Every structure is written in C-alpha cells, then in structure tokens.
Amino acid sequence: MMKQTFVHDISHQLQSAIFSSGLAAKLICLFCIIGYGLSYSPQCVRILTVIPGHVMPPNFWIWTFLTHTFIELHIWHTIIDVIVVFLYSKMIEPLWGTKELLKFYFIVTIPNALIVTFTYFLFYGFTFKEEYLFERPIYGLASFIGAYSVIIKQIMPDTVIATTPFFKLKQDHVPLLIIILSTILWVAHAVPIHFLIMLSFGIIISWTYLRFFQIHQNGTKGDMSSTFS
Q: Where mainly found (predicted)?
C-alpha cells in the first residue's frame, strides 16, 4: 500500500509539473525526446553529438555544441532528464522567466561542451589514443542537471531533504553529493567519463554565473549571500 501511495504521489507531482511548466521546460524536454528517437540512427548520433576530432578543421562541426545535449543513448537517461527538467523548472521558470532560463541553459551547456572537448584533447595528448578524438562522443543533459542542483541550492539552501541519525541532508549539500555519486558510478563503469566531467563543470559554470554575473530584475548582479558561498 505504501509503495502504491508513493508511486501515485510521484506520478501526481510529475503530471502537475508537466501541465504547469513553462515554455522553456517543454521545449527542452521535447527536444530530449526527439533526440532519444534519433539516437537509434548511428548517423544521427555521429552528426549531433560532439566528437572532438570533428569539431576541428576541416570538418568544423560546431553545431554539435548546440545539439549534443538532446542525445541520450539509453531510455532511462532520457526519462531522468525529462523528470528533473519538469520538476525543477516548475519552481525556477516562474521566478526567472522563459528567456532567462533558456539563456542559462546555453550559458551552461555550450562552454561545458567546449571544456569536455578540450579535456579529451588533453587525454589524447597524454595517451595518444585516437578513441578520445573519434570514438567517444560527448552527449547528454548532465551539465544542465548539475546546474539545476545549484539553482535549488541558491533558492532554498536550508530545505531538509532527509534526516539521518548522523546529519540532515539539505538542498545545500546536493551539488557535492551528486558529484560524489557520479564519481562512484564512473568508477563502477555505470556512466562514461564525459558524464562526470559534464556534471561537475555544469555545477561549476552555473555557480560562477549565478554568483557573479546573473543580472536580476532589480538591477543587481550576482548573489554574494553567505548561504550561496
């Protein structure tokens, strides 16, 4: 009975989030679903994901810095992406507006793809393995998922998620927690290395933008509060 109630509550919250979400969330999720469908085509994966060896001349496939986030190779990754985007955007988009959320999306995902690409070039420089240039595509929404955890940390840092006999898990702890969990998953070969890099730099880039550069409606810039350090 408890399990059925839990599933019902989650289902109800997701339905509510979908119907009450803004345009930005709907667009991102729509493209994620379309991207997963396209992932069944090896050719589409090749031309829509970031492949470091293809973004350099003479290929210069720079559009992949825009399209890579919408490709996922596993259905459960797409499901997680859609659920997180809808649930978090329900809180964020009404506060920020569609334009600011889409701006934030591009600020996080495009530099992130550039950083992971540069990292792969470094891996190639140290190992001389061409797989880092041509056989390890960079894809997925991990950078934006990591960025969402930073926004929630900013909005409600003291909200308690879970209580244990030893400590209280707060929203403030989530960014570090998901980096630790992602590292464990990578060590266990459950996720590829680019997932960990994208998630980590998604958190770093989003925190930097929110801390120092985001312009608020009242004209102030950034968030220098002690709760968002």
A: membrane
